[in-house]
Design a protein that fits this description.
It is built from twelve helices and 14 strands. 45% of the residues lie in helices and 14% in strands. The protein is an alpha/beta fold and 402 residues long. The longest helix has 40 residues. The strands form three sheets. Strands 2-9-8-7-6-3-4-5 form an eight-stranded mixed sheet, sandwiched between helices. A four-stranded antiparallel sheet has the order 10-11-14-13. A two-stranded parallel sheet has the order 1-12. The protein folds into two domains: 151 residues, Aspartate Aminotransferase, domain 1 (Alpha-Beta Complex); 237 residues, Type I PLP-dependent aspartate aminotransferase-like (Major domain) (Aspartate Aminotransferase, domain 2), CATH 3.40.640.10.
């Protein structure tokens, strides 16, 4: 028994070392550190009291069903409220049969891969890309073909050439993956002309588009742009979203919207007995009267934090370092001068109490050594300014000699 216990201790010890900074259970959520690493929602802005009251109401109305197994497609009451919200706020007008409730947007992406992707299949993805999506694509043993981005989104000339090359080689990509609004990790929003061009190319080459829309509601400035799914006239867009960023990540509630045949296929691949009926009943009770106002409050919170970070970067960073200026979402993307390596700098920043994500984790081929993702969502304004000042001092030491 003692030998078994020792082996288990070693196993869990090794696993603990692999927890990324900023991940739950990792040092990035410690209150004495500056957490720029994890894109976690602000804990103080979560509607704990309102959700508690909604839970009481939900139990009084439908407790016996909220605590029971649920339908594979999700609780009807939550689907109804989601459709109301999407039509009102996002301009998405679909029917219940086009919707599947999932355990967060990550499960939605995973299920789409289960339905469409076999080992060796090609996925075209913006580059850099959401770390969680890359992990899922790799788990399905897909070949990831990256399309570089600039400050307007994916480069359309490269996307067009890539699709043409795939066709010439007899390769049919399974989908084009994109976060067109407040992209993770760059914060970039794809312009309207490029959104339309993505759909033109998708139609020309008969390729699906997987639109990941986790941050749409969190716009602080600029013009609200239509989503790909609302511009699509060919039925090629698969749309995923989540309640994680606008209510709480702990709910583990998201969705995938697509053509009915795809939704039927994806539903059969779900391994659970209905995605969290308990959480679904609570959100369905909370959403009608309180969600819209809560999102407005969140926009103010995250706008202030974005502004604090941009102001601190402008005041503290060496002029050789540049960064994106997002109109919403959670992230700012730094670009370092030639000769600097964010992977090498990360341990020293951590030793000084500042955690960030190096750009390499957002590329399938470990590029991005000159990039840093900073998340401003979890940290208050005073701490943001302190953290940026510390980080700027460290980066200044690493500037290449001229």
């Amino acid at each position: 028994m003692a030998q078994t216990q020792t082996r288990l201790d070693g196993l869990f010890s090794s696993a603990a070392k692999r927890v990324a900074p900023g991940a739950p259970g990792g040092r990035g959520l410690s209150p004495d550190r500056v957490n720029f690493a994890g894109g976690a929602p602000d804990p103080k802005s979560m509607p704990t009291k309102a959700m508690g009251a909604a839970a009481v109401r939900a139990m009084e109305k439908n407790g016996q069903w909220a605590l029971q197994y649920g339908a594979a497609a999700g609780y009807d009451g939550l689907v109804e409220q989601l459709l109301i919200k999407l039509k009102r706020d996002n301009g998405v007008d679909v029917r219940p049969e086009n919707v599947l409730i999932t355990a967060g947007a990550s499960q939605a992406i995973d299920l789409v891969c289960d339905a469409l992707v076999d080992p060796g299949d090609t996925i075209i993805s913006e580059e850099p890309a959401f770390l969680g999506a890359l992990r899922l694509f790799n788990a399905h043993q897909a070949k990831i073909v990256g399309i570089p981005m600039d400050d307007r989104g994916m480069k359309m000339d490269v996307l067009a050439q890539t699709l043409a090359d795939c066709k010439a080689r007899g390769v049919q990509p399974k989908f084009i993956y994109t976060i067109p609004t407040f992209q993770n990790p760059t914060g970039v929003t794809t312009t309207l002309d490029r959104r339309l061009r993505i759909l033109e190319l998708a139609k020309e080459y008969n390729v699906a588009v997987l639109e990941d829309d986790a941050y749409f509601d969190l716009r602080f400035s600029g013009e609200r742009l239509p989503m790909l799914i609302t511009l699509d006239d060919a039925g090629l867009v698969i749309y995923t979203g989540t309640f994680s960023k606008i209510i709480g990540a702990g709910l583990r509630l998201g969705w995938v919207i697509g053509p009915v045949p795809l939704i039927h296929k994806v539903s059969k691949l779900k391994p659970d007995g209905g995605t969290s009926p308990f959480a679904s009943h609570i959100v369905a009770e909370y959403a009608p009267s309180q969600l819209e106002e809560h999102v407005k409050e969140l926009v103010n919170v995250y706008r202030n934090r974005r502004d604090a970070m941009l102001g601190a970067l402008k005041a503290e960073m060496p002029e050789e370092i540049t960064w994106t200026e997002p109109e919403g979402g959670f992230f700012v993307w730094l670009t370092l001068p030639e000769g600097m390596d964010s992977v090498a700098i990360q341990p020293e920043a951590a030793a000084h109490g500042v955690d960030f994500m190096p750009g390499t984790v957002f590329y399938p081929n470990q590029e991005g050594r000159r990039n840093i993702r900073l998340a401003y969502s979890f940290t208050d304004e005073e701490t943001i300014r302190r953290g940026v000042k510390i980080l700027a001092g460290i980066l200044r030491e690493y500037l290449p000699a001229t």
